[in-house]
């Protein structure tokens, strides 16, 4: 899919604010691609598409999980956790986006996972640090990325803050979120 087509697809599908978030994630991901030596076009495209399913109907999301044999543990969660895996599946099977890096980046942008691919890591982080994000601690993560250029440590700190936030809100934790935390706890330096 060309960038222009992707922008049009997302502009037509999502509310204006979410479309603008997607563009900022894409721009941030492209900048990070330059720093970490990833493919800029893939990072930009994955950024544009990553929240495609954010507001899809939950019932239809569960149907995608079943039809395409996605992780059945997802059925215990809501759209917060499902929109990535479902969007990746829709892009692959209904919009002809064949690229594996883009598939993984969209699929795992919310939970992360152990041993993420480079484009996948970049989208996971770019989603958290795009310029309009203002959650506490985001400045530290930007520093880890743009000054220290320590992507794995940035991922670790994001997983840690996400887990703390979820625990505080009494939210259920998806296995992959914990696996991601443990893995990047081990490999960070
Ligand atoms: O779609 P965005 O708002 O740009 O961001 P996102 O897809 O990274 O995260 C969406 C939400 O998902 C965010 O509020 C944190 C939440 N989340 C991440 N991991 C888990 C989770 N929610 C639950 N219940 N369990 C998780 O493991
Ligand atoms: Fe998302
Ligand atoms: Fe995220
Ligand atoms: Fe997002």
From TrEMBL:
Q: Which reaction does it catalyse?
A: P(1),P(4)-bis(5'-adenosyl) tetraphosphate + H2O = 2 ADP + 2 H(+)
Q: What Enzyme Commission number(s) does the record list for this chain?
A: 3.6.1.41
Keyword vocabulary terms for this entry: Hydrolase, Iron, Metal-binding, Nucleotide-binding
Query: Domain of life here?
Result: Bacteria
- Record's PROSITE patterns? HD (PS51831)
Which positions fall inside the HD domain? Answer: 18-132
Q: GO molecular function terms here?
A: bis(5'-nucleosyl)-tetraphosphatase (symmetrical) activity; metal ion binding; nucleotide binding
Q: Does the keyword Nucleotide-binding apply?
A: yes
Q: Which Gene3D superfamilies match?
A: Hypothetical protein af1432 (1.10.3210.10)
* UniProt xrefs under InterPro entries: Diverse_Catalytic_Enzymes, HD/PDEase_dom, HD_domain, YqeK
Q: What EC class does the entry list?
A: hydrolase
Q: Which Pfam families match?
A: HD
What protein does this entry describe?
Answer: bis(5'-nucleosyl)-tetraphosphatase (symmetrical)
Organism, scientific name? Salinicoccus kekensis
